Amino acid sequence: KAGVTQTPRYLIKTRGQQVTLSCSPISGHRSVSWYQQTPGQGLQFLFEYFSETQRNKGNFPGRFSGRQFSNSRSEMNVSTLELGDSALYLCASSPMTSANTGELFFGEGSRLTVL
Amino acid sequence: AQSVTQLGSHVSVSEGALVLLRCNYSSSVPPYLFWYVQYPNQGLQLLLKYTTGATLVKGINGFEAEFKKSETSFHLTKPSAHMSDAAEYFCAVTMLSNYQLIWGAGTKLIIKP
Predict the structure, then answer these.
(1) What is the DSSP letter of A96?
(2) Are A106 and B44 in contact (CB under 8 A)?
(3) Burial of A14 (C-beta count, 10 Å sphere; 0-12/13-18/19+)
């Protein structure tokens, strides 16, 4: 069974640009969560989607958005990039109806560098 | 506020020595408890979990953790460290009062030869 796939793995952008990251969950998983990981802030929850609906949202500005498609694939978008957005963005899928049962399957992440 | 505390951002042990990574949570209701591991340049992987039942939980790679309700703790142990255990370890807790998933700050485990 294929794991969670995130693309691209690495990308470099400049301030003010926007970026879209993609996540394909494990087949059959309908819950997808996104996390931002930085050395200073650790793991921070961005949002969770289930059946194309955003169920939970973390404390991030509106520049961060996401969506989920009918095949459970998810994308997240960051607009007007800032230097502080440089981070590893992790996607996780869950077989449960809610990612908050805690059993998550993570992708390898997309490492974003903003110059 | 509900929180998860991992004692020590870095823990260093010698190869073959006992590994002990500490995790404490604040909650009046026993939660679901998890340990995840992150190897360099990879995503997180579930090591073990406690939801109900036996309080001593065995996971992958020889790790185990014990849920102690009276101490609100879920410490991770391994009898004998191996060089391949070098990674960052995260404790996570689902608070059953509101089904909020809370993460600890992580502990980097360093193995000395």
Answers:
(1) S
(2) yes
(3) exposed
Q: What 3-state class would DSSP assign to A80? A: coil
> pLDDT digits over A52-83, tens only?
999 889 999 999 999 999 999 999 999 999 99
Candidates B4, B10, B47, B101: best to mutate against A (most CBs of A within 10 A) is B101
Q: Is A102 left (phi over 0), alpha (psi -120 to 50) or beta?
A: left
- Cβ A100–B101 below 8 Å, yes or no? yes
pLDDT digit string, tens, across residues B37-56: 999 888 999 999 998 888 99
Task: Produce one character per residue of B25-58: b if its CB has 16 or more CB atoms within 10 Å, e if not.
Answer: bebeebbbbbbbbbeeeebbbbbbbbbeeeeebe
Interchain CB distance below 8 Å, A103 and B49: yes
* Tokens 């309908």, located at residue: A30
Confidence of residue B23 (pLDDT cuts 50, 70, 90): very high
